[in-house]
Amino acid sequence: MITGSQSWNSSFATTPTGSSFAGSPTGSTGAVSQSVTNSVPGITSMSPTSNTVTGGSTDLSDSGSPEPTQTPTTVAGGNNGGMTTTWSSSNMTAPTPSPFPAANYTQVAFLAALAEDTCYHLPEEPHGELSRRALMRNSKLREDNVTVPVPYIQSVEFESEGVRPLSMTVRDKSQGTFHIDISNRSRLAITSSDGYAMQIDGSGIRFVTKDCRYDVNITIANLFSQIANLSNVGCSVGTGAQPFPSPIPVPLINTNTKRAEDIKFNQTILLRDQCGSPVTKAIRAYPQLRVGETTCQDIAVDENSGTWEFDCTFPGAISGILQCQNAVKNDIIDFLNRDSFGGACPDISTMIATLGATGNDMLSRDALGVALYNQRGSSNADNSSSSIENVASGYTLLWESLQGFFIPQNASVNSPWEEYIGTYNKHRSFENDICEDLHTGEIPLSLNLLVGATYIDAVTTLNWAPRAARTYNVTVQDPAAIACCPNGSEADDQGKATCAYPREAVIEDTNCSCGKTAGGESLAFEAMECDNFEGRCERDEDCRGGGSVCVVGTCCGGGVCVDPYACSQNGTALVKFADGWSGSRVF
């Protein structure tokens, strides 16, 4: 807790051992001088006034940054489906926010803590399964003598089904790596390979380490609105206005390499039930034909012949590869290039550039170090000046990495992120390479059918959309039709103790057998004690029960009256393949 002014440690004036931080302040006293050094096109009114921040609490009554009315306790990273992505601003000593006299922002406060109970981590697979990683084909580009811009994307992490991106791994000029969290469109988060993390959202900016130590929470009221005003971008923040356009359009989608898309084709199925009757629209369940997981639409039905025509697509909107490509476009390309922060305006590159040009007094190594230095003694965490110094430098390097990815460099009008995507899509396809890497094994797709009491998991398999699809004749089971069956037989050894139906007439694992009616047709009927049948018979007219028919040649010494629907309605498989009984037949 900040209890009073404490002297500034002079070691903050030097670069810590092993750090590549090149922007160290030059002073060696307790005062830290900061000024705006970056520039953003279109920003016409920037205050160059230096801010002097002394170590310890400062009277900010005239700073334009009023004391916050409450202490923030928990800032959630958004709904991530159970991912461990949490920010917390509470610890054992409940530090209070300290107003900060920012040069270009109002209502700014620092809240620092040396140790936390919970904190931010890169998003994980929400259901505890293994995530899936797609590697970019940067080496293939180099083999084709293409210069890959740096920094560049090395890989993209997805949840287990490969349709929701979680994070990107980016390699920088020094061959180091950092990770950008793309799992939540209301924020932008970046982590370094050594565990430093930074998050930006509408409420401010937060820094923390992977072990939940050295947290710095910079709260800025209406951050996106303030950035929009400073950048002079004409838009209505938070209202879904048109996004800020990129200065020069870059090929975010490769127009040379065809993107996988739904290809339509017509599929005809000739449907007949177990009795050979045409299947009509009256059947329950209604016919449903699917390519993989994508349902086809029935477009014409000839009920006299049972001919059904379907309009299908390949690979289908619900296919893994198409869902993946839509996610890459929406959750990576659009999010990072134009539809940032849930529709806030301007885009990420403009936001980062503006924040870099106008917020260095808040985001400098010294401002972060002072906030942590003043928390010494508030926890059992390592509070040595050298540890705090290294952490502050790590946070600064992380902020520089974020700027290096999203701010145009060396007089370019496009950011390195845009330059990389533009180069990649000029020669390959960013979406195709990612999603083919994840979903190649899902092709071929099965053409599956659900109708009546029948499910066929593969009428056929498809590697592509057929130009002239073959017509399939499919026998299915209608539970509302009588229990017709193939190979109807009379029992052997009738009237003897050894009486039984031949093997081909026995419907395995059921209480039904395929017998012969008095009219000579095959019918499945339920076996029971002879005295339990409705009656004895020689012809259908002998059966007085409503709808009963006469099955002859039974082990009861003659014919018996049976319910012709019983074995159809109890789920017995009435269609027989060469390898056994089933609820369907395809030919």
From TrEMBL:
Compositional bias per record (Polar residues), positions renumbered to this chain: 1-53, 66-95
Chain spans, region Disordered: 1-95
Biased composition (Low complexity): 54-65
Protein name according to UniProt: Uncharacterized protein
